[in-house]
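thread from #wetlab-drylab

HS: before we spend reagent money on co-crystallization trials with adenosine-5'-triphosphate, can we at least see a predicted complex? here's what I'd submit
DV: go for it
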Amino acid sequence: MLEIENLSVNYKAIKALLNISCRVDQGEIVALIGANGAGKTTTLNAISGIVPPAAGKISFEGEEITRMSPHKIVMKGISQVPEGRRVFAKMSVLENLEMGAYIRSDKKGIVAEIDRIFQLFPRLAERRKQLAKTLSGGEQQMLAMGRALMSRPRLILLDEPSMGLAPMLVEKIFEIIQEINREGTTVMLVEQNAHMALSIAHRAYVLETGEVVLQGPAAELAANPEVRKAYLGE
Ligand code: ATP
């Protein structure tokens, strides 16, 4: 579904990504794990068209999207949930969701989508009129995910969904990610919480200083002594 070939990204003199290749197949949850600064967010931002690649190719459903605008990439069916959630603080829950549907004009479809999101996140339904800034961290994460789902993406990119959340909420968010995936959305997940990420992913890639150093089925990586030592705290 998504194919990244020999992708490099520079920020001026900093080489953030060096020739990385990876793929996401339809129906999968694929995790990208690695330490702070390894290049995980940069990978997602390159897919979304937010940062320009210095070299390499990104294709989605057989079509090259490498230098398309972020808007066009959303139209193609890819939606990103940014790190730190970044909901529209002064808008209500409902308004935030409506903003996520900005590429759609089918009013009925949008209303049905909001219903679907309220089923997935009952907490958001209860708080539909509340300003986003008054929500807890976990609720803001749910809202950011709901907003991204409003465009009905076939691939959703999640950047550190567990960041700053209490363990119980982390579990809840990961359950919801699995549910979204079961309902047919393919997931690419960036996480510093390698333990959680590997527990729900089908496959994973390990990034170190801008390069893919390990890849494979998530269960295999979780059993790999190097991964256990470096990322699972053993
Ligand atoms: P984190 O979890 O901290 O976001 P990450 O694995 O997502 O880490 P990136 O944010 O992709 O890593 O950063 C990769 C490298 O690029 C790091 O060395 C980082 O300092 C650098 N970098 C990221 N964004 C910029 C930017 N806008 N300008 C300059 N350097 C940047």
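DV: The chain has one domain: 2-231.
HS: ok that's useful, forwarding to the group
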